[in-house]
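so i finally got all the pieces together for this one. its two components total, 671 residues if u count the protein bits. some of the lines might not be protein, just check the labels. i wanna see the whole assembly predicted at once instead of chain by chain like last time, that was a mess tbh
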Amino acid sequence: MSKPRTIIEKIWDAHVVHEQSDAPTLLYIDLHLVHEVTSPQAFQGLRERGLKVRRPDLTVATADHSIPTTDRSLPILDTIAANQLAQLEKNCRDFGIPCYGIHSDKQGIVHVIGPELGLTQPGMTVVCGDSHTATHGAFGALAFGIGTSQVEHVLATQCLLQTPSKTFQVRVDGSLKPGVTAKDIILGFIAKIGVAGGTGCVLEYCGSAIRSLAMEQRMTVCNMSIEGGARAGLIAPDDTTFQYIAGRRHAPKGAAWDAAVARWKKLPSDEGAVYDKQITIDADRLEPMITFGTNPGMGISITAPVPDPSLISDPLQRDSLEKALRYMGLEGGKPLLGRPVNVVFIGSCTNSRISDLRSAASLLKGRKVSPNVRVMVVPGSQEVKRQAEAEGLPEIFRAAGCDWREPGCSMCIAMNGDQLQPGEYSVSTSNRNFEGRQGKGGRTFLASPLTAAASAVTGVVTDVRTIL
Amino acid sequence: MKPFTNFESRIVVLPINDVDTDQIIPARFLKTTSKEGLDKQLFYDWRYDGQGRPKPEFILNRPEARDAEILLAGDNFGCGSSREHAPWALTQFGFRAVISTSFADIFRGNALKNSLLPIVVPHDVHQQLLDTVSKNPAVKIRIDLPGQKVTLPDGRAVEFPVDRFSKQCLIDGVDELGYILKRDQAIAAFESHFESSVDTLQA
């Protein structure tokens, strides 16, 4: 019998192109996703070397980061952003890559459109010049973010030099209580291991609580693997996965579908496979989570007080917490509940899919958002936007007093003018609360769409369970 | 890329843990389509006030930072996004090495591809360096990549890890793409039996 393998090892083994003792492994890439921010310098590199794109048929581009979320029929006022978006379309034309640009009906956040088009499939290696590429791991793919040099490598050769990561099993057992969501699982996990706890690792999420999540919730979990320091995070495919993919634009059809499913069913980790690290989380004990600080590891149960720096002995760690609380304008030992917020942002590659919007709408239906709060709802893609419109969600959001916008990364990264003003507080469904992430001087509390919607209604940080 | 040679330099100290790439270069500066001109945007929001004036207390604005080629940072330096603009900005400012107790994976890989050497040292050495530089900001240390060692001001040599392949690329001043392009036969052989799952060009 061969040695039992994890799904991570199985995908790795199936993509090894070349190995030699004095170099990293050359790994083949099944799908390369491209966007406007991390690709221009890579295309420039190809031009300087006179290289072509090796596999345009395994490459797809979209515009998401610097794109405005206002009326798309209007010109883009930011000329630098407009130039970057035009450059993406030109690069894709010149190199023969399909591009879902600003006026495409398939445009959207790169990690939203890959799955919805059926491009993301189990067993694949998927890369993108974006650290949230682990989102695609929800399908049982080995998906990770790369830098611009590596974008150029993959464009030119469809390969990457890689060294194997450690394997880290994250078991989440039990069932989530009402008001507790996939976002709370991942925020709870990162709060436990810290922002560097997964460094050097690929995570495999498993356990009954993960199995019972729908695909969009699994994407939310995998999406934030990088926030725990991990290169990637994945979930073994099952019937939930196959049902989601079936019938999508790029999904295999007919006999090819049956063959694909048979292949995908062999991917889950073998009985007895060994992981380098393991952790178990009890889903029954999870509460809605929220971050208080300036990295995603600084998270607490929404009912808990903000940690007190005076109780921390390590000087650098104490300094970090003090610095974070100073930036956030918070005091250790005090609760976050009841703190006024200025902005609520519902969107990003973490939480902008149709189920996220339904979740927020379920709470906002028949309610008004607080007059002190500006609420932005930004669908993840044109497809999500169309589906939401078919279900009447924009009417619910608008009636509640929210701003319903065009798809893009928007205020998650604040490159496109959607941003906080200095000192403002937001409850945001995005993935990063770094200093200035949502606008210079802005202060971010990361939370689920339910918590965000609840806080929009009350105007203060709110435990959604009190108004469900 | 220029070959990476041994050098001696003063040290800029940034004793903060988990410095993320949004601090190294804020996202609003990523709308550029060039690799150049990023040195002014390095640590922009820590370095300049709301009116764009240098904050005199920030380390990069202090005289001791001038011409220093080594940054000494806290744990998990470079966490967050995959933006290669972070090492571009650091090297354009003049840094050739960052010393820490740990680095985020993507940043470390990006740095190595841009002649910026990420050096991991044990906590006690890290603390010793912090103490030494705080007492005397003019001290210099020597970095020897072929020998994989940092020579501290007291003469002690401390070894650091670097993978063989990256080390050779840095010393030779070549990038990885050249190596991969030479593996064309292996790639073609792989593709001859590889069945792609999707065709993005399919209408």
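Chain A touches chain B through 85 residues (CB under 8 Å).
The mean pLDDT of chain A is 97.
anyway lmk what u think
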